[in-house]
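Subject: Sanity check before I submit

Could someone independently write out the structure tokens for this chain? I want to compare against mine line by line before I put it in a report. The sequence has 459 residues.
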Amino acid sequence: MSAVTIPSGAPELPGPRSRALLARLDRVLNGPLRESGDVPFVLGRKRGHLLEDVDGNTFADHVSAWGAAPYGAQPAAVGAAMAEAWDRYGMEITNYVKSEPALELAERLIELAPEGITRVAPTVTGTEAVEGAVKLAREATGRPMILSFLGQYHGESTYLTAASSTDRPDNTSANAQYVPGFVFAPYPNRFRAPFQRGPGPYDETLYIEFIEDWLLRYQVEPSQIAGVLIEPVAGEAGILAPAQEFWNGLTRLCRTHGWLLICDEVQTCLGRCGPIWAGDLWGLRPDILLLGKSIAAGGQPVAAIMATEAVLAESETHLGGTYAWEPAACAAALAGLDILAAGGVLENVAQLDAVARAELGPLVQRFPQVGDVRVQGAWAAIEFVTDPVTIAPDAAFQAAVHRAAVRRGVLGISEEAKSVYRMQPALTMEPELLRWSCRQVAAAVEETARTLDGDAERP
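---
Independent answer below. Compare away.
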């Protein structure tokens, strides 16, 4: 641990400077951005894999810009490439005026893509990528409907927040009933399943049976479905990674009925889940592949829609926009791909996976409030429950654990309405820092268990 800087945390948050700035923020920003319970400080600076607030307190960064900073705070090569491209090209609209960085980025992405993917469409955000994918699937097939899965997260536009399912019902309030064109099945979950009581593991082929026996019988004709929109690993839902048997069944349905497979890898691409593409874990060959977050490499916003020749080569669908693949953003993304290609990143992710499993996995046996621990690459989730029999979600316990972890110097991803706590470190975080962080989270669970529920450990 001598080579790793240990975060300080703080017993009392927010500190005085953060408190003053948060008060100013509360007077001018909107709704959720006025809240500071989840992150009770104001960022002063970032360095490496640490965050420092304006009061000088430091925290291990398990947010990594929610995945858009996969190589730590300021990867030097990314910053240099971005600055050089800005000096050379300035701001330009790639949809109209082409530039070499955009061409190079498209070529590099196609080289990395799964078999069959031959074309790229530029865009800015994951939300826009998903919107574009839905348009493309309908255009390519002439069919109106999209099959998707409950509990996923596909973006913040009115249309997709309402129609493509989200991880929280309040996101769809006053919108869902006005947007047609989608049917839903539950997202596969081995720990808890619809119409079942208590913890799993449950056979995930039941989700395929639900689609075949119920959705396709009572709700929609298979010939009306254009494509299947799915995250290979559902991040906001709590790092859910379906079994091979589920994917075998889903791809069989796609082949049988002519559905396009749309893999939303905005959160999972470029090493987050272990391999370059999360779909590689199960040998998926999507017709449409969506990238975001990690492709930015900590530089500027950038995302992409990738697809087969049949879907994208002759498409007349309007995609992209003013800021899609601005040259400096493309240069930064290329530098990030260079970091990935140089080697060592995916190997480090494998070490992070092993550390998280070793440190967090035993919490299920130690604490009745820990229902499940799920780890996939540089991604971990702890699901908290009221008890191990009913496994009723315990959002209050999760929020308390998060606050205790922040005081100890670990900032993970928490939302007070959720029972799942997530850790999303940079792909390059030192395994020793992750190990230290996991132990602080374990201590936070123990503290919360004693404070809220008396006896901390199972007999």
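---
OP: Matches mine. For the report I'm noting this point. The two ends are 33 Å apart (CA to CA).
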